[in-house]
Structure formats: structure tokens, C-alpha cells
Amino acid sequence: MDEVIMDQIMFVAQQVVSWIASIAIIFGGVVPYIPQYRDIRRTQNAEGFSTYVCLVLLVANILRILFRFGRYFETPLLWQSIIMIITMLIMLNLCTSVRMATELNTKRRSFTATDSKDEEIKVPKRLFLDFDWNYFWSWTRFVDYLQCVLAFTVLAAYMTYLLLDSVLFVESLGFLAVFTEAMLGTPQLYCNYQNKSTEGMSIKMVLMWTSGDTFKTGYFLLTQAPVQFWICGFLQVCVDFAILFQVYYYSRYPQKPISHITHTTSAKAL
User: Fold this and answer.
1) Residue pair 32/212 in contact by the 8 Å Cβ criterion
2) Alpha helices (runs of H) in the chain, residue ranges in sequence order
3) Which residues, at least 6 apart from 227, have a Cβ–Cβ distance to it below 8 Å?
4) Angle (nearest 5°) at CA 214 between 209 and 215
5) Which residue(s) pair with 257 in the sheet?
6) What is the pTM of this model?
7) How many CB atoms lie under 10 A from the CB of residue 178?
């Protein structure tokens, strides 16, 4: 009788741990972006956050969802990708609205052709596409980012549908999704290098990146995951530490004068 009760308790405990782990997997990836989102809203300054981080995660998670049609993986990972895509779209919406409010004299750029009935949007009318590749992913309106994401999704889904029976394509799709995610910190690393500063970037976000990527890479090694998983994980950790080094270096050896300009919505610029 005691053994039966103990078995039931162990079963319930395992279910609870499994449930908590699933929740952590689904929502854990978006946690690092909460402080960055709050900082941008508070300071009304999106300069320190690279929107190419959003691009990397959108591409990686769209490809991961398509990869599931060729090779099944756990449902929590599927929901993780869906939640991450929604989160990145929310971040893009915030960044574009902030930049629209603070850069009123900037030339408007769009992904698709505009009718140009609004005299403030001085964009010449074209047949379909209306963007300069030098300013890719630097558009003015959130709807242009949304159109680009939808166009990529449709194209990638069509190619996946045509080549779903090819093992080489499916495996390459999975590797590309993992490798793209491994490049997550690279846009932020380059953004900091261009600005010669980490002002406006959330340190909490990078610390959460580092701790999560370190744990994930250790998990891959302990569970003897496929080699591309732990190699990509190790690459992520290296990029995270490189960003943390930028935080130390640019704070100790400033490369440009400290800005004393404050925004109208905040007495302090995060």
C-alpha cells in the first residue's frame, strides 16, 4: 500500500516538474526582452537596441516551425517559436513607433510601393517594391516589417512544401534554423560597435541571454545532442561574452562624449 502511494506521489511530482519545464521553455525565451521593452518605453529611445535581433529571431523561428513539418519535435518548442515571433513583432512595433515620433524629418522608407497621397511621405511610386537595399530592415512603418515577414514566410513555406520529401532539404532547414538563432547576438554586437557605446541597450537582457545560452549549451553536452546543436550553442555563448566585454570596455574607455540630451518623456535616457 505504501509503495502504491509513493509511486503515485512520484508520478504527480514528475508531471508537475514536466509542466513547469514546458512553461519555462515556452516563455523563458521572451523574458530577456521585457527589460529592454520597458527601457525603450520609458526613455522613448530605441537607438541602443538593434532591430536586426528581431530579424534573426523571426527567421530562425519561422524556419523551425517549417522544420517541424519534416521532422517532429516537442510541442512546447513549437509554442516557444510562436510566442517568440509574436514578441519580436511587438518589439518591432514599439521601435518603429518610437522612431517615428523622434525622427520626424527622416525620409520615409517602405517595403512596398505607396500611393504617396500623404504629402509627408515623400516616396516615389513604383510597381511593387520600393526600398533601397542599403536600408533593408530600416523602414518607417511597422506594416512594412509585417509585409516582409509574411512574404518570407510564404516563400519559405512554398519551398518546404515542394521539397518536403527531400531528407537533405529537411536536415538543412533544421540546421539553418539552429544556426540562425546562434547568430542572435551578432546584430547587437555590431550595433554597439557602430555606436561605440552600449548606451540604450539593456544589460539585463544580455545577462539573461548569457545565462540561458550557457545552461542550454551545457544541457546539449550532457545529453549528447547532435554536434551542430552544441557547436551553435557554444557560438552563442561566445557572442554573449563579447557583448558583455563591450559593456565593460565602453564604460571604462568611452569612445564618444556622454550625451546630456534628455527626452521629453523621461529625465533619464536606458
Assistant:
1) yes
2) 2-28, 33-43, 52-70, 75-102, 142-162, 167-182, 186-195, 203-222, 227-252
3) none
4) 105
5) none
6) 0.71
7) 19
Question: At residue 60, what is the residue type?
Answer: A
pLDDT tens for the chain, 270 residues long, are 567 777 777 777 777 776 776 777 778 778 888 888 888 888 888 877 888 889 988 998 999 899 888 877 677 778 888 999 999 999 999 999 988 776 654 555 666 655 444 444 444 444 344 556 667 888 888 998 999 999 999 999 999 999 999 988 988 888 888 888 877 778 788 888 888 888 777 788 788 878 877 877 776 676 666 666 677 778 888 888 998 898 888 888 887 654 443 333 322 222
CA separation, residue 95 to residues 36, 129, 139, 145 (Å): 11, 22, 11, 11
Q: Which residues pair with 112 in a beta bridge?
A: 129
Phi, psi dihedrals of residue 112, rounded to the nearest 5°: -115, 165
Residue 212 burial by Cβ neighbours in a 10 Å radius (0-12, 13-18, 19+)? middle
Closest CA to 204 of 89, 23, 44, 35: 35
Total residue length of the chain: 270
Residue 60, number of CB atoms within 10 A of its CB:
22
User: Which amino acid is residue 201, in one-letter code?
Assistant: M
Give the closest residue to 40 by CA, choosing from 30, 51, 27, 56: 51
